Amino acid sequence: MRVFVTGASGWIGTAVVDDLLAAGHQVTGLVRTPTAEAALAAKGATPHRGDLDDLDGLRAGARAADAVVHLANKHDWADPAGTNAAERAATATLGDALAGTGKPLLLASGVAALAQGRPATEDDPSPFHGPDSARGGSENLALDHAERGVRAVAVRFSPTVHGAGDHGFVAILTAIAKEKGVSGYPGDGTNRWAAVHRSDAARLVTLGLTGAPAGARLHAVAEEGVPTREIAEAIGRAHGLPTAPIEDAEAHWGWIGRYFAMDLAATAKITRDLLDWTPTGPTLIADIDAGGYPG
Q: What is the domain partition of the chain in residue ranges?
């Protein structure tokens, strides 16, 4: 299968490209820089220079492929409106390019805000609709294309897709802990974050390309919920820092504080049963304890 991957040089994208190639697929990856282009070509994939604002390039990449995996996102926390607008425009362009073909479109999404007071499940619809909502309402926009002859599938990633070299949320929390001299946790630290190892997330994407039906919501979740106190304690152990409760999360952590204070637990039973997906990678705490987050 010829697969067009956006975000092919990103944290999740590089692992997805590797897994797709190992499964025998041909991969064309969207990359922005000469360095990323060379790295992708060295793996045996085909670089496609461009970015999320190059809608003509996205359209061409999608039309030339048998499937699309859309992982790219600007993640500009200083301009969330711009990030959401770019995500919506890219999703609409990719979906329109595949309309009527029956080809797969797997779109990256997340588990945040899906449920209150319990772990989110794949049956929980995304509450985000329209261009002004989180991620530009891209999950619902993509799934709407199932009615237009696209095998649209949402892949909801855990808030932490972890592993050695991760520069995401846990890396940011680690850097803040080292800067402030304390590894904090919000409130009593009982709120939880779902977690998945990068290799397991990549494998799920590959399985979803061939095994997930149109309209499916997949959960890239290996651990239903790791208490934030345990995350903070692991960071503290790794760097010789004390741990302590933090009452004002945003004052202490900045923008990431509001996410660290959320309960983002989720299950993946439906996904596991549907795709026979069994995560085998290390746990989040094991990765932190092994020195995966030097900060």
A: 2-158+196-220, 160-195+223-289
